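Quick one - first record:
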Amino acid sequence: MYYYLRKFIAMFFTIIIVTLITFFSFEIIPGDPVLSKLGIDADEAQIASLRAELGLDMPIPVRYIKWVGNILKGDLGESVRFSLPVYDLIKTRLPVTFSLMIISILITLAVGIPLGILSAKYNNRIGGFFINFITQIFLAIPSFWVGIMLIMIFGVILKWFSPGGYVSWSENPAESIKSVILPSVAIALPNIAIVIRYLKNSVLEQMKKDYVRMAYSKGLNSFRVMKNHVIRNAVIPVITVLGMIISSVLAGSLIVEQVFTLPGIGRLLISAIGNRDLPLVEGMILYISFTVLFINFIIDILYKFIDPRIKYD
């Protein structure tokens, strides 16, 4: 119980630190969101009126406290650029980014786990060397370049998929999956390499344990030893690194959404930064940070559930 409480308290204080860094970082960045919206030709009365409307005429500590209070009430403010609530703007883009995240993670696990096991099983053999070679390539290639290559091959040359655009799930489920499958693959490939690397090393480490030799001495074949003993313990580090993968998926989607012209969180964030839409940028960074922290918290809980031997140091 103390383990879970400790993790929750750590997440809570991390969120507070994130709000402090997010708010005060944008206070010291040069530029004025009011002038960004009104233009340099606006008169002093218009500027003063909009600053008062946005609350920018109040002292910084007061604005921070008010901002946090509004967040606790579910109010992330109003976008300067779009004149719409930040919450509504994020909500409309969530299905795209979440579709990318879920499908790319499923691809990562479905491909990475079997290849990681095979890489360990055929270590120092031709099959293992081939998987390691492919892994090195995937680790070195950035997602946006993979996305461009996928568009060229499957969108332009083979014409199997439409290169760009998004179809919502409510309009056409099949076309919705087709519209996100290529960007999901582009995001997944580097993460597949990470899973293969971690799982291979973990399996090889577990194969040296005494309990594995004991299982072989009882007459169990390699398949049963791997299935019933090795994989269960070897997959735990993969669960730990899954939080890192989810974070990289959210970060990778920022560029991949631009490459595939998908109307997701990434494109909205880049647009908000370009227009110096501070309420929107702050709200989105806070949302992404909270999502990553919450997912890592769930993974820590799952990690403890799978391996009860974990104790608080």
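second record:
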Amino acid sequence: MYISQSAKIAEHVSFGYNVVVEENVTIDRNVTIGHNVVIRKDTHIGEGSVIADNTVLGKTPFKASTSATTDDKLLPPLNIGKHVTIGANCVIYRGVQIDDYVFIGDLASVREDVQIGERTIVGRGVSIENKTKVGRYVKIETEAYITAISTIEDYCFIAPEVTFTNDNYLGRTEERKIHFRGPILRKGARIGANATILPGIEIGEDALIAAGSVVTKDVPPRKVFAGVPAREFRDVPTEQLLENQSYYVGE
């Protein structure tokens, strides 16, 4: 195990085998760190958090020569809030803000310039690309792909294998770089399994996208869309609206 002399470790922190803690890391009290965890410099881990085996925290992104969304810039440190759980074999980049009580499942990847709101669940194998904002009480299920420059507001639900996209030009022409934009999900929107959301599409508040749909145009609030391409099917039933759910705590 290696712990830098400049790291600040509070009381009751436990470490597994082969842990690396780099310069200026801060770990608050009652944190549990698993085996083979690497914590890069300047990272902060809040009180009561759990980091499982083989996870890397605070990784600096590499930039491919042809990347259109990765910037060469100094990123702020990774900041992990209180009572956060991060599973095994995850990679969480520098420049990420994770709020209190977030749960991140095994094999997940969270890129730089991402914010994740409190009590959100990020499922196993989920990828959240850079410059994305995820709100509070969101659930993103197994193997969903959240592309760069996306917005997911509070209380949204994203089922397994959902795919967000942000490039209408499919990698051709330099013009594409000024048009990159991921989907926007407004509060309480729900996306069914294996749905694909095209670049820049806005899904309205409390709208529902059926499983397997391909969404090619904006979806109004409180509407159900289904099909390829997705078309309006009906209104979301009143009893399913977010405001009528017992777990909804408002703004």
